[in-house]
Amino acid sequence: MTDGQRSPTIDGQIVVSGLTKQYKNVRAVNNLSFTVAPGRVTGFLGPNGAGKTTTLRMLLNLVTPTAGTATISGHRYTDLTDPLRHVGAVLEASSAHKGRTGINHLRVICAAAGLPKQRADEALALVGLTPAAKRKFKGYSLGMKQRLGIAAAMLGNPRVLILDEPANGLDPEGIRWMRGFLKNLAHEGRTVLVSSHLLSEMQLLADDVVIIAAGQLVRQGPVDQVLGSMAQSARVRVRTPQAEALIAALKAQSATVDTDEQGTLLVAGVDAPTIGRAALAAGVELHELTTERPDLERVFLELTAGKAGIR
Amino acid sequence: MNLVRAELLKIRTTSTWWWLALGAFLSIVLAFAFNAWYAVTVLGGDGGDVGASPEQSTPAAQAANLYTSGQYLGLMFVMLIGILMVTNEFFHQTATTTFLTTPRRTSVIVGKLLAASVLGFIFWLATTLIDLAAGSIFLSLNDYGAQLGEWPVQRALLFNLLAYAIWTILGVGIGTLITNQLGAVITAAVLYLVGTQVVGLLFLLLSNVLDSEAVLKWQVVWPAVASQVMITEGTSEFTPSWWVGALVLIGYALVSGVVGVLITRRRDIA
Question: Which residues belong to any copy of the ABC transporter domain (chain A) (predicted)?
Answer without folding.
Answer: 14-239
